[in-house]
Amino acid sequence: MAGKPKLYYFNGRGRMETIRWLLAAAGIEFEEQFFETREELLKLLQDGALLFQQVPMVEIDGMKMVQTRAILNYIAGKHNLYGKDMKERALIDMYVEATMDLNELMMHYPIQPPEAKAKHLAKIVEKATTRYFPVYEKALKVHGQDFLVGNRFSRADVQLLETILMAEECKPDILSKFPVLQAFKARISNIPTIKKFLQPGSQRKPPLDEKSIPKVMSIFNIGNE
Ligand SMILES: N[C@@H](CCC(=O)N[C@@H](CS)C(=O)NCC(=O)O)C(=O)O
């Protein structure tokens, strides 16, 4: 039997967090190796473990996988979270790509310079409430089912919940005009694997705090590229 997947990243959300969410939702236990310094990342690189010299990297089923989307696709396919056919998969892909676009915007918020923060936050709220959330609200309302795609639990539900919770960290009442998404959030948060991941002490990571920002910027050489 293959061992547990092993995740290589820093001890924070970044691009790895969605991978943690998906594994947890699938009920898969995983190990994590964190690097604290740029030197530790460079060591991994020198060992030849990073195909494109970047993380996230996940050791899984004898592979050293990189590229976030490739990793997520593999986990989703393996654990039956990727629809029943090509068309469902296409819809799931559209939905999750949009959540990842919004996540990317939110991920960059903590590292904005102080003078750019308010504008960046306004952009997050505007995109969430006028571009992305209305689509999911309508989709759930129109088909009236519990899950986004195909009337069964998929990565689309997991990734949308992750994004909703991140958006609420930016603006706690961001769902106020989206009653169907409020119900969706409650429902999906109650799925046992997800409920467990949402509890304190799980491998879910908190938002990046002020004192971790210089560390993350130094590990990834952000601003010096
Ligand atoms: N397309 C890649 C992008 C990966 C990426 O940008 N990783 C960052 C950390 S989140 C990194 O390794 N930066 C160091 C570098 O690019 O040298 C993916 O989605 O995995």
TrEMBL record:
Gene3D superfamilies in the record: 1.20.1050.10, Glutaredoxin
Keyword terms: Transferase
Keyword Transferase: yes
EC numbers, comma separated: 2.5.1.18
GO molecular function, a single term: glutathione transferase activity
Top-rank lineage group of the source organism: Eukaryota
Cited CDD domains: GST_C_Alpha
PROSITE patterns (alphabetical): GST_CTER, GST_NTER
InterPro entries per the UniProt record, alphabetical: Glutathione-S-Trfase_C-like, Glutathione-S-Trfase_C_sf, Glutathione_S-Trfase, Glutathione_S-Trfase_N, GST_alpha, GST_C, GST_superfamily, Thioredoxin-like_sf
GO BP: any one term: xenobiotic metabolic process
A Pfam family annotated for this UniProt entry: GST_C_3
UniProt record similarity statement: Belongs to the GST superfamily. Alpha family.
Name of the featured protein: glutathione transferase
Organism: Chrysemys picta bellii (Western painted turtle)
Gene: LOC101947278
